[in-house]
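Task: complex structure prediction.
Instruction: return structure tokens for all chains below.
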Amino acid sequence: MEAGFHAIDSDWCRIAFERAPAPLVVCDSASLHVLGANACAGATYGYTPEEWAQADLLALFEAPDHERVRAAVAAAARDGEAQLPALTHIGKDGACLHCQLQCYRLNCDQPAPVLLAMQDHSDAAEAEAKLAHLQDVLMVSQEVTGLGCCTMNLTTARLTWSVQQYKNLGLEPASVMPSMERLLAPVHADERPAFALAIERCILDGRPFDTSLHLTWPDGSEHVLRASGRRISGDLSSPDWFACATVDITEECRLRDQLLQTESDLQHAQEIAHIGTWAADLRTGLIETTSAETYRIFRIDPGRNGKGGPFTLEQLFRRIHPEDVAAVAAAREHTLKTPGERYDHRYRIVEGDHEVRYVHSQADVVRDEDGQPVRIVGIIRDVTDMTRAEQEIERLAFCDELTGLPNRVAMCRYLDTAFGESRGLEEPVAVLTVALARFREINLTLGHLNGDDLLRDVARRLKAELGEDIHLARTGNAQFIAVLRGVRAYNAAAVAEAIARVFDTTFLVAGVRYEISAQVGIAVAPGHARNPTDLLRKADVAVYQARQGGRKTMMYDPAQDPYDPQRLALLGQFRNAVAEGQIELYCQPKVAMSTGEVIGAEALARWHHPQLGMVPPGEFVPLIESTELIHALTNAMLQASVRQSHAWRQEGLALPIAVNLSTRNLMSGTLPGDLRALLAGWDADPAWLGLEITESSLIVDPDATIAQLQALSSMGFRLFIDDFGTGYSSLNYLTMLPVDVIKIDHGFTTNMLRDRRAGAIVKATIDLAHDLGLSVVAEGTATREIWDALLAAGCDEAQGYYVAPPLPAHELPGWMRQHALRCGHAGAAH
Ligand code: C2E
Ligand code: CA
Ligand code: CA
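Output:
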């Protein structure tokens, strides 16, 4: 302790002064000389006691602060105490300290000694600066995050709002005094009491809260705030606080609502469209989806929350129909291996023995930078209803409702496939067309319902006979078609016979047994046709041929097909043939069997086709008979015959020529007039001509035909019934017909020696004709043996190769001369 430093006079005061942990200095308030300094002051300012004794108080301060120091010391000397805010203090080594200075007057001496207590303020200043900085940061971050803060000092009940808190309430910062009322006011009335209670509980019980509040801002806009309240406990030195943080989540709520809405709309849409979405992680084999529809489609339990957790590919595969598993796996493999390929596959899923459903799955593969597949993302659609509808449409389009068999469309499809798969027709394909005879009649007699029953019965029997391997379809009202492929096609004829036998047993319709007959036409590719359309047509023709020939089954015979396309081409060319004189008259003589005398000739047409050469009438007459062209042929033949007769008569040969007529010629009604005009043109008479009418043409319209024939007969023409025995005409008509001659069909004549039935018919026809006063011509007298048999049977006239083939008309006189010579030598019967 320094000399003169007597201001502190008691021992304990001096010890306290000396040991105090803060720098203490005593100075003379008038001179500002340092009277004494404690150890801490020595350590702080770096002065030894000796140096303190020389020191002046002002030396511890910077010059600009000297006045303030002087004033503070003076004030303390006067008033007892004074204070100086934190100033920069200078130590001996020039180091600066930031200290606050408390000045106390020690006693009432004049001048009074003043005790200066230095309070180191460096840390506080630093903390203050830091605090200011933190406050700035806080404000910025509050502004950035929108986090408003409302704090309440629970000791003073003073409320503070951060700038952002004002904003969160829709207020200008610092525009109002913060208060609890102002905090609660904008909250919707129905939420306000609960919020007030939450604050109260938090303050009183320390119970924290987190809540959403709906607010109406002063500008009328609606907002949602998230508010969290906490009570912050202080200690002895600091008070308790209540803090409430708020953040405006209006936009967030709007987006969330929008998202939820979108999600629910999507779910709804997926539900309606039966579309589910999914994504499979290829590394884990897990399928993730939030799509309720995906769970529904796969019948996988989505779990308690209904949102569903991931399920495994394996789980999914267990749902796939066993027959489809391989195809699904293959399609998946293919997609994974082929970049850019979309997985697009339909398959069936089944749950245990439950119903089968159809799904359509489409997916894209997501690959990593190396092109390795990592995920598959796709949609799955329940297409059961659609598929069932398609199947039903398909069934209706391809099925015959009545019998349940495939219909014509389905058969054509099958046939197309069969042709497609027959490897360039290496394998044969056969079509068997089964046509029920007289079905219309049955329908009319028994009624449609019974007719339907009958058809079902026929279908059943055919199916039972043919088995599953042969495609059987109902292709028309009373028509069925069987398609045979490969080996079976070789046996088409045998199958046709088997089909025919199906009709050997009677059918029970409405309690009555009916005999049903059917014709089966057969056509086989590639022999008969090289495409389905042609094959079907030819099987149809074969049915027609079977019917014509009175047979149950018939293999297509090109020689008898009047509808062959080549023949149709002929039909077109025939128009010109007549005009261009390509039709030539041939004559086949008829001789009296008793004398061998030539008593007439039949006019037979020959077509000299410029490209095809000689076309026999059997190839073009049936064609043109169903058209108007037949009139052109008949006229041409009648004219040629009259011209020829005229020519022969010039040579002294009076030989009648019989011309063949068709049904159409008789039906036209103009024939008598035409013939009259023709004869008049050549000054000829009806005895020059004979007219041949086939027996079958008589039955088309017997009354009209008979009337026409009567007209012709009364004009003086000799009338022949051609092809007798083949037309099933009633004997009753025969007695009414004004005919002169019956021509026995060459079918009977040529067979009469080997077929007793044919022989009997020939004999009976001859006797019948004679009984009716008609004479008989036997066509087809091809051999000497036939000639003899006919002669023995009493036949009147003969025509046939044994006598002569049809000859060009101009050659006939020459032949006749030779014939007369032969007859002269060989007698009447050659
Ligand atoms: P059709 O009226 O029955 O004529 C007789 C057919 O028998 C002729 O055939 C004749 O050549 C053939 N024939 C002659 N002798 C024999 C024989 O010994 N054995 C056999 N198996 N056949 C013999 P073609 O000339 O080929 O005529 C075939 C058919 O064409 C004729 O049958 C006739 O229906 C029709 N036709 C021919 N020319 C005409 C015509 O000018 N007008 C009409 N409407 N039809 C004609
Ligand atoms: Ca004839
Ligand atoms: Ca004939």
